[in-house]
Amino acid sequence: MLIKIHPQNPERRIVKQIVEGLKQGKIYILPTDTVYAFVCSLDQPKAISMLYKIKKMDEKQYLSLLCKDISMAGVYAKNIPDFVFKFMKNYTPGPYTFILPASKEMDRRGMGKRKEVGIRIVDHPLHKMIFEYGELEQPLVSTSVRDVDEFITYPESLEKLYGHQVEAIIDDGPKKNLYSTIIDCTSDEITIVREGKGPVPELGYYPPEFEQE
Question: What are the residue ranges spanned by the domains of the chain?
């Protein structure tokens, strides 16, 4: 099922519908500030297991946590150093995934024991509203989705591929397949693991399309 939303001002009734579905263990495909993503609640282990199956991923592979802010991320990441906290603050919200040491809180979830956790703080009005008006007290679990052979992902294509496996695809229009920049913050030196959409001037990285925009 496709549900169209306003890209800048998502309708509150739709946001409420999504939040209630997530709390019930349903899986959605949501737009982000990069690509579309499968999303479910961290408190729903059956949904997390199903997400792995839909994406055909080995359960040893990591999924990302979509957090409201760094404070929420700090519950699931262990002892974020001051220099990493300041770095994250400079780049959030935005198209970045931060790899951090996982806290013991992750062991109690449906994702198994993890030494590391990938954190995203998405810069998209829908995500802000989900956390602000949905009263969610924990992150969402996420993994990216796109048309494998296309540079542009169209919601209609996602409906054909996954419409029967998810509760709904939330449509805010076509998206370029530009992934988040993955940044490793697990050591004394912050490094880029995957170059993506987000520029990191502090590390001398600018995406090819950055100057064009």
Answer: 2-199
Confirm if 135 and 49 have CB atoms less than 8 A apart: no
pLDDT at position 193, please? 96
pLDDT at 57 over 60: yes
If you count them, how many residues does the chain have?
Answer: 213
Q: Is the model more confident about 135 or about 19?
A: 19
Task: Check residue 60 and give its pLDDT.
Answer: 78
pLDDT confidence of residue 59: 79
Which tokens go with 151? 């540079």
Half-sphere exposure (Cβ direction) of 157: Cα atoms closer than 13 Å: 14
Is the separation of the CB atoms in 186 and 103 below 8 Å? no
Candidates 171, 82, 71, 52; CA nearest to 119 is 71
Q: What is the pLDDT of residue 212?
A: 42
Nearest to 142 by CA among 163, 122, 125, 113: 122
Q: What fold is seen in the domain 2-199?
A: DHBP synthase (3.90.870)
- CB of 30 within 8 A of CB of 170? yes
Q: What tokens does 165 get?
A: 């496996």
